[in-house]
Design brief:
- The protein is of the alpha/beta class and about 130 residues long.
- It is about 40% helix and about 20% strand.
- It is built from five helices and five strands, in the order E-H-E-H-E-H-E-H-E-H.
- It has a five-stranded parallel β-sheet with strand order 2-1-3-4-5, with helices on both faces.
- The longest helix is centred in the first third of the chain and has 12 residues, at about 10-20.
- It starts with a strand and ends in an 11-residue tail after the last helix.
- It binds manganese (II) ion (MN).
- Manganese (II) ion binds near residues 9, 10, 52, 54 and 55.
């Protein structure tokens, strides 16, 4: 079980991702933009951030770069979840500091596999992983 920050401005996608992640026992904090994400990151240290790249205002690329720049959040894995499926977008996301990249529509098994990969074993509570 992990604490996950979800940054997604589309309510349907936010709901879907939240339901999928909670079904695995993860705790999900959902925000819709960079302002909300900064507020959460001031008081919490999530194990993983799910990042929609297309956000109103500061986009997901810029927000990821900001997260990477700040020492207190630099090591949190960021998983890009995006409908930008153009050639070069994945590279752009990785250059911004994303640790993983998934395209929409959200696929439950893909999302869970990538979340599991990025969480590794280190964030699991002792004895919490089977
Ligand atoms: Mn969006």
């Amino acid at each position: 079980m992990a604490q996950i920050l979800l940054v997604e401005d589309n309510p349907v996608n936010a709901k879907l991702a939240t339901v999928i992640l909670r079904s695995q026992g993860h705790t999900v904090e959902a925000v819709t933009d960079a302002v909300g994400a900064r507020q959460v990151l001031q008081v919490q240290r999530p194990d993983l951030i799910l990042m929609d790249l297309g956000l109103p205002g500061v986009d997901g690329y810029a927000l990821t770069r900001e997260i990477r720049r700040r020492p207190e959040t630099a090591s949190i894995p960021v998983l890009a979840v995006t409908s930008f499926a153009m050639k070069g977008d994945e590279l752009k996301a990785r250059e911004a500091g994303c640790s993983g990249y998934l395209t929409k529509p959200i696929n439950r098994l893909e999302l869970l596999a990538e979340v599991q990969r990025l969480l590794g074993g280190s964030t699991a509570p002792p004895g919490g992983r089977r």
